[in-house]
Design brief:
Chain lengths: 332, 651
């Protein structure tokens, strides 16, 4: 009650806002911004403008100055017209979920939001925000019949799926006197891998042959022939000279990589908490991938066979990110 | 705008463009503010442009504070006050310029743009002529384009884009302006009083005193004093006497109303003839006189009469005023004269103009009657080599003697002063009436200029009341019949429009006058009274119905703009016929929960549908083939198979 008395506008605003937010549903998109889900209010500058007009009106009355009346009324009309232009800058815009690259826990995931302008009138200065009135850096224009892009930064607190939260697309164009916005929640998610932490390779012995892995360093392996290119092989591994000669893509095989097949075993990492284990495994997967080694990953209830390449790395990282400990084998 | 945006850096191109717009907005003030203020504003503007172009450091708080104090001090020294219209505008322009020295981010630019809008309004304190409406619209578009540019945080949009957008918005605001102008309930001003120099460029109207020499200043100006429009035909030129202050008291040099005038009984009109109805648009005069055609029966515009049927408003005229009045050119004014009035109207300063007094008494004695005496005096003016001139020589202690017997050069003030002195010397009650005489007619309007200022005499005759006698007419009939320009010898300087020659130019000028007259009549004089009068014809006389009509009209106009904006932003019609047909498939299958996902390709979608509904295998495959053919290989003519296939799809 006291809040109502002290900050009637703010409180009313908050009430309306919570009512509006309750109506926002998570949708796959694309979502066309309809008039019913678009809200518009004057900005602080809009209020300053109105106060200035009031001062001009009083001046015009005092001096009985017809031209001052005319200017005041023109600017008043301009303010009202501007409301429709700001509204029109957002209405009928189509908001679609874009991609977001996976991140490591603790990093910020950037969700692409595509703003498709289906009309022949260009739209300018569209902003994304999580909190009304606090625009995220990076504005987008959506030219006529074209698409602009916004990025929503979402911090990945922990590993696993990161869902894009509810966000607003807003605009104050053209005159900054009105703030028009719409709330959306698009079905966008990306994955957060465990934060790579711990000691770098060599990993602790798994299957007893891990000790040799310490010698397996990229650069000092022996060239051991070529094999056929498989999807996911890094371009750096492609034997380009052979490819140019034969017309077939082949990948260089190194003896070290063959010799030192690695397997990272969750259960072998005793003495570490669950998340610390996953972080350690994550670091090793990355190290092994960088060194070009073949490696496998063994998690309770899940084994990824020894392999190499980006697709394999991503599969390993995803398994780590989504790993759920079984109740009976919980170690921590 | 958000916090992040308010800190945002503004491109130097934007700053330079804002400076250019401010230059346009401020330009007309050059003629109002002192030279040093213009120089300072220009210097600061140029420096800021240099700072924007070259990246110079903006000055610190001490420098800015010092400049602000110096500017305030300068204004005070120039005007002796900070209060008033011109000092206020000068100070505002200077402070605006100094604000430039701390203009960095988005918010500062925003403040400058608001200030630019505000500066625009100050011009109308000085000038409200027709061309100002063009200036107003031009500046409104320029400033609004700047505002648009500022509100595009990714960097300046092309000027063509912002100007176009601003132009569209201003154009859409014009109907709202007109509706608000007409219907917004006006209240009589002023709200808090006007500075003493309000309407600074207006010419001061008739003074309430007259010592020969004063009226010269008025006659040199061709500024419009007022315009009149007669309901019926124009009265003939020799009846176009517009009554202003009536002067009763003469101290030997100067005619004034005099203290006694406050105690004189009100005038009484009898035997009046046909009424002449007219309306007047009075320009700003900073004097209270409500000029009325000789003679009014009622003071117009809620004014009052002071002694001698001189109408005055309750306060000086600081705004254009429109009023209606009625005049009677046939009348008897004060058939009876009280002894007190007679005393006041025959009083002369002692020890002044002895020769004139002696002469007047001789003439009166020899003339036999009052009228014969008046004729004798006028005959004297006519017979002796009197010259009508606006550049009379200085007069000595006995002004009337000096004028009548020595210099014999003067204008209406001299003649009326001498004439009334002679009348009073002979015992006839007489008084000086000042006002305007003449004017020019163009179309509906009759324009009276400051150069038409005039002074004449009224003599009270037994049985006839106060009779107007214009001694100037005796010397220079052209002054009364044709106006000042015709009355003056060719060598004398007169205001351009007072000497009415040059048909072509005059024609153009008169046409322009007509536009100005309509502008003044319908726009500038539009105030509370006129609003009520006009709107009551449409049943909108009271402010309640005005507000109702205003809200209704604004709603309708805004609705039109809103519909236009929605129409502009409607999704463009999908011209991809194949895609539209393909979308129909999804629509048909929606009720079965088989809507196509946004990211689903045609093959994937067909596979999914077929997996769910094996019965649709054949038609779906047919549609898919036709769609892929039409979409990726075909032309518009190949749509028929797809259209048929989609039409045949029975879910």
């Amino acid at each position: 009650m006291l809040r109502w008395l002290l900050h009637p506008l703010n409180t009313a605003n908050r009430k309306i806002e919570s009512w509006v937010l309750r109506r926002v549903k998570r949708q796959p998109g694309p979502v066309a911004v309809s008039r019913r889900r678009l809200y518009i209010l004057p900005t602080r500058q809009g209020i300053v403008f109105a106060v200035m007009l009031l001062a001009m009106l009083l001046g015009a009355m005092n001096y009985s100055n017809s031209m001052a009346f005319a200017l005041t009324f023109l600017l008043g009309g301009l303010g009202l017209v501007c409301m429709h232009h700001t509204h029109g800058n957002l209405v009928n815009l189509e908001v679609a979920a874009g991609r977001a690259q996976p991140v490591f826990a603790g990093e910020t995931a950037l969700f692409d939001v595509h703003l498709h302008n289906p009309s022949k009138r260009p739209r300018f200065a569209l902003a994304g925000s999580f909190e009304r009135g606090v625009a995220l850096p990076g504005y987008a224009d959506a030219p006529a019949l074209d698409t602009g892009r916004l990025q929503l930064p979402v911090k990945a607190q922990r590993r696993g799926w990161v869902r894009a939260p509810r966000f607003a697309v807003s605009t104050e164009f053209p005159l900054g006197l009105f703030h028009a916005w719409t709330w959306l929640e698009l079905d966008m998610q990306t994955i957060a891998y465990p934060k790579p932490e711990g000691t770098h390779l060599p990993p602790p012995p798994a299957d007893g042959d891990g000790s040799t892995a310490s010698t397996a360093r990229a650069g000092d392996e022996e060239f051991a022939g070529v094999r056929e290119y498989a999807h996911g092989d890094p371009p750096s591994a492609v034997h380009w000279k052979a490819a140019a000669r034969t017309g077939e893509l082949v990948v260089k095989q190194f003896s070290a990589a063959q010799r030192d097949d690695l397997t990272f075993d969750f259960d072998a990492l005793t003495g570490l908490a669950l998340e610390a284990r996953l972080s350690q495994l994550c670091l090793w997967v990355l190290d092994a991938h960088t060194s070009g080694a073949n490696y496998g990953l063994r998690l309770p209830g899940q084994t990824l066979p020894t392999q190499s390449g980006e697709a394999h790395r991503d599969a390993c990282l995803q398994a780590l990110a989504l790993y759920q400990p079984q109740n009976d084998s919980a170690h921590d | 705008m958000t916090e992040a945006a308010s800190r945002q850096v503004v491109s130097r191109h934007t700053t330079l463009r804002l400076l250019a717009v401010l230059t346009v907005v401020l330009a007309p003030h050059v003629s109002h503010v002192p030279l040093w203020a213009t120089a300072l504003v220009v210097a600061v503007g140029l420096w800021r442009a240099g700072a924007a172009a070259r990246g110079w450091q903006l000055p610190g708080l001490a420098v800015r504070g010092g400049l602000a104090a110096a500017a305030t001090g300068g204004v005070y020294l120039s005007f002796g006050t900070l209060n008033g219209q011109t000092p206020g505008v000068t100070l505002l322009a200077l402070m605006g310029a100094l604000k430039l020295t701390e203009m960095r981010g988005h918010r500062d630019h925003m403040v400058m743009i608001m200030l630019a809008y505000f500066l625009l309004v100050t011009h109308f304190l000085f000038n409200q002529e027709v061309p100002m409406i063009a200036f107003l619209l031009l500046c409104a578009v320029l400033i609004t384009a700047m505002l648009t540019e500022i509100n595009h945080p990714q960097g300046p949009l092309p000027a063509r884009q912002t100007l176009r957008s601003a132009g569209v918005m201003v154009a859409q605001a014009i109907p709202l302006m007109i509706v608000l102008f007409i219907l917004f309930p006006r209240i009589p001003g002023p709200l808090w009083g006007l500075p003493s120099d309000s309407g600074a460029n207006a010419v001061t109207g008739l003074s309430d005193s007259m010592s020969p020499g004063d009226i010269t200043n008025l006659s040199q100006s061709d500024a419009v004093a007022f315009r009149a429009r007669f309901d019926g035909p124009l009265p003939p030129p020799n009846q176009r006497y517009w009554r202003g202050p009536v002067l009763w008291d003469f101290d030997g040099r100067t005619w004034t109303r005099g203290e006694a005038a406050n105690y004189l009984p009100p005038a009484r009109l009898t035997d009046i003839g046909d009424p002449v109805d007219y309306e007047v648009i009075l320009e700003v005069s900073r004097k209270p006189w409500l000029l009325a055609l000789d003679v009014p029966t009622q003071a117009p515009a809620n004014g009052v009469f002071s002694a001698g049927l001189s109408a005055r408003a309750r306060r000086p005229i600081y705004e254009r005023k429109l009023y209606r009045s009625t005049a009677y050119t046939q009348y008897t004014l004060d058939a009876e004269l009280s002894q007190f009035t007679r005393n006041v109207a025959t009083r002369l300063p002692s020890n002044r103009n002895p020769d004139s007094i002696t002469l007047a008494r001789q003439w009166r004695d020899s003339a036999g009657s009052d009228t014969a005496f008046i004729d004798r005096v006028l005959q004297y003016f006519r017979a002796q080599p009197f010259v009508y001139t606006l550049q009379p020589p200085a007069l000595g202690r006995h002004t009337v003697d000096d004028f009548l017997f020595n210099t014999r050069r003067g204008f209406c003030g001299h003649y009326s002063s001498a004439f009334v002195t002679l009348m009073r010397a002979a015992g006839l009650p007489a008084r000086v009436v000042t006002g305007y005489q003449g004017g020019e007619s163009n179309g509906d309007y009759f324009t009276v200029r400051q150069s038409d200022a005039h002074a004449w005499a009224e003599v009270w005759l037994n049985g006839r009341g106060w009779v107007r006698v214009d001694p100037t007419a005796a010397v220079s009939p052209e002054r009364v019949e044709l106006g000042l320009g015709a009355a003056l010898p060719a060598g004398e300087p007169v205001p351009g429009l007072a000497r009415r020659t040059g048909a072509m130019l005059e024609n153009l000028q008169l046409r322009w006058e007509l536009v100005n007259a309509a502008w003044n009549r319908w726009v500038l004089a539009y105030g509370p009274e006129m609003q009520r009068e006009i709107l009551s014809r449409f049943g909108l006389g009271d402010w309640r119905s005005m507000i109702f009509a205003l809200v209704a009209a604004v709603t309708v106009l805004l609705g039109v703009v809103g519909v236009w904006a929605l129409w502009q932003t409607r999704p463009a019609r999908n011209n991809d016929q194949a895609l539209r047909l393909w979308n129909q498939v999804s629509n048909k299958l929606r009720k079965h929960g088989l809507e196509r996902a946004a990211d689903e390709g045609p093959r994937d979608y067909t596979d999914r549908v077929v997996a769910q509904r094996p019965d649709l295998t054949e038609p779906m495959q047919r549609i898919l083939r036709a769609y892929l053919q039409a979409r990726y290989f075909g032309t518009a003519q190949d749509l028929a198979p797809l259209r048929d296939a989609v039409a045949d799809l029975k879910t």
